[in-house]
Amino acid sequence: MKNKYSTSKSIFAITASIVGAGFASGKEISVYFPQLGLTSILFAVIIFLLFGFGIKIILKVGQSHSNLDELNTFLYKRKSNFANFLFIFSTFIIFSAMLSGIISLCTQINLNNLSMVIFFVIGFILINGYNWIIKLNALISPILIGSIVFVCIFIIANNRVYNLPSNKNIPEIFANTILYTSMNLLTSISVILFIGGKISKKQINSISWGSAISIMLMFILIIIALNSSQQNNSNLPILTLLNRLSKNIYIFYIPIILFASITTVVSCGLSLINYYNTTFKSNIVTVIFIMAIGIIIGNLGFTNIIKYLYPIIGIIGTIQLISIWLYNKKTS
Into how many domains does the chain fold? Predict the structure, then answer.
């Protein structure tokens, strides 16, 4: 098979689809891993292994089934409306959370109307399909990774963190690690499946573990940065910290969170478009529909969605990943 996507392009595209506003702002990590401290090193290794393994099995199955609806048919031996419903429900929640995150950010910087401009840009990207999204994610991902690393190091250096607190509730954090990884992989599954159909088998390991390393590095730095403050209750804790420490870096990081939101929201949106296109027969109508529903659900609030609905999505994601693993094991 001729390789259509390089290894580096694939790593960046997958990483960007996972790193959304919740990750880049520190909100997801502050909810799932509060006051983790030095224990974060252990859980960073678990995060690395889970993401690497999860991405690998999805890429492998994507070699033969790069469409999610087709994959569910193979997994459950028939077209499963229930499985599709669970996936669409989960995707809508993540999609709505990213839209809500954009609204929260625009509200925090007193540019409420900017969110509507960004929503228009998101709609335009979605109408143009997979190739646009892969190109966008691959382009933005190095900027996201570099910026998150830089900002977290800046926060750690300026808060003079030497003695980090440590959350003693290890079983709960371990369960959160599984749910958090599964939730993120479910969010990105359509993009990962699509990439799986565009690469060779030899690339799978490099792409899987390369993506996992990027995520692990950012995870460790965000954990430590958040442990240096009491800003975990903020909607956008990293941005709130920067607003106190440096106005210049605060302004610099605002578009980074916006980029992170866009890369994840378009990845989720594409899954929704693929599902609803048979209903509406037009990408434009489909995009208007999913954006409208996403904004309505997003009114629940960025923090509330992450705190109360993300764990449910993590459970659904875990079931889906186990099904894919069993399928891979049976067919290998």
Answer: 1
